[in-house]
């Protein structure tokens, strides 16, 4: 069971749920990935979220410290939002001398940056984390990692991992990186989280490089088949804006963004009549006191997705 699962049914504030998910959700990469030694392990994250449980429940009652932190570094970019959540986590988990987005320059030109630099009593010495939250759809099951494509067709999983392990995590070993750190060599690790999406009703292939515990959903081309129906019970639907892609969604009865299936079909028809942008939708089941909780999510993409060679 994911370390996030207990918190999924306990926490209700969206930003606090995202913070808990950022810490506790399983990473995308398997424990026996070729670069596993350079990946922040799920076991470390599970221990961290257990130790921060009291803080998370306190924030759920009064989220002001977290919301003020996020507002002071507001961004419309999901990756930057995720990075700020991780920085908040570290500042409350004993990290010292935390630097976010520390740029490396040579003759005034930026060569790269360290996402997070800090010292941590549990990790020892200087630590460099590269932080990534990614969402990939498996378009070509037979292609393995090469078959995973971002919803906007802008990147592939295999290319991201090549850049992460072949470039970003090696920044401290470059002459400019060494100079920026005064010769110090940090322990470099990647925190890679997100969601993987598989064709609706297709079996999930076993890919040894990817964690079988990684959060997952489905995808389908609009107009080619129906949205997945629950085996039993009533459901609602919600279209998730990009900054709500992290933790499983919640909804409240009467909320304007909580749709029945027929209305969602209208929303999708209206959207794809004028746009080709994929939409991430969540299906929610009732829990208690008018609250609905996500039990499934998936991308609905245009009929011709990917419309151009990625």
Description:
This protein has 310 residues and is α/β, with parallel strands linked by helices. The protein has a domain at 5-142 and 155-199. The protein is built from nine helices and ten strands. It has helices at 5-8, 14-24, 42-51, 53-61, 64-72, 78-91, 157-166, 175-180, 261-274, and strands at 96-106, 109-119, 126-138, 148-149, 187-199, 216-221, 236-239, 250-252, 279-288, 291-301. Strands 1, 2, 3, 4, 5, 6, 7, 8, 9 and 10 form a ten-stranded mixed beta sheet that branches. Strand 1 (96-106) and strand 2 (109-119) form a beta hairpin. The chain is globular. The two termini are 35 Å apart.
Key phrases:
single chain, 310 residues, alpha/beta, ten-stranded mixed β-sheet, 9 helices, DUF1853 family protein, DUF1853
Outline:
The protein has 310 residues and is of the alpha/beta class. It contains 9 helices and 10 strands.
Strand content: 25-35%
Q: Main beta sheet, described?
A: 10 strands, mixed
Summed up, the helix count is 9
Q: Count the strands?
A: 10
The residue ranges in which pLDDT falls below 50 over 5 or more consecutive positions are none
Mean pLDDT: 93
What separation lies between the terminal Cα atoms? Answer: 35 Å
Radius of gyration: 20 Å
Could you spell the SSE succession in H and E letters? HHHHHHEEEEHHEEEEHEE
Structural class: alpha/beta
- The best one-word shape is globular
* Portion of residues within helices: 25-40%
Oligomer: single chain
Pfam family, one: DUF1853
Organism: Thiobacter aerophilum
Protein name: DUF1853 family protein
InterPro entries: DUF1853 (IPR015003)
């Amino acid at each position: 069971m994911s370390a996030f699962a207990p918190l999924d049914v306990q926490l209700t504030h969206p930003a606090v749920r995202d913070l808990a998910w950022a810490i506790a959700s399983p990473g995308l990469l398997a424990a026996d990935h070729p670069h596993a030694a350079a990946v922040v392990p799920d076991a470390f994250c599970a221990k961290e979220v257990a130790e921060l449980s009291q803080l998370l429940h306190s924030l759920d009652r009064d989220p002001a410290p977290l919301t003020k932190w996020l507002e002071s570094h507001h961004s419309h970019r999901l990756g930057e939002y995720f990075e700020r959540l991780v920085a908040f986590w570290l500042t409350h988990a004993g990290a010292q001398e935390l630097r976010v987005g520390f740029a490396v320059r040579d003759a005034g030109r930026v060569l790269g940056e360290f996402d997070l630099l800090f010292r941590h009593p549990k990790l020892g010495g200087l630590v460099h984390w590269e932080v990534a939250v990614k969402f990939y759809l498996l378009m070509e099951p037979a292609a393995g990692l090469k078959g995973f494509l971002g919803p906007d067709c802008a990147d592939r999983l295999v290319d991201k991992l090549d850049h992460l392990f072949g470039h970003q995590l090696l920044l401290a070993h470059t002459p400019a990186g060494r100079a920026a750190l005064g010769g110090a060599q940090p322990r470099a690790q990647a925190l890679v989280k997100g969601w993987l999406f598989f064709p609706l009703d297709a079996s999930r292939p076993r890919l040894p490089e990817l964690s079988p515990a990684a959060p997952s959903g489905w995808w389908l081309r609009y107009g080619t088949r129906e949205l997945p129906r629950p085996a039993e019970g009533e459901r609602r639907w919600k279209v998730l804006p990009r900054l709500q892609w992290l933790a499983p969604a919640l909804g409240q009865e009467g909320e304007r963004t909580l749709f029945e299936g027929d209305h969602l079909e209208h929303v999708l028809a209206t959207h794809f009549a004028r746009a080709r942008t994929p939409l991430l939708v969540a299906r929610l089941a009732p829990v208690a006191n008018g609250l609905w909780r996500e039990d499934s999510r998936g991308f609905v993409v245009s009929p011709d997705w990917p419309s151009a060679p990625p």
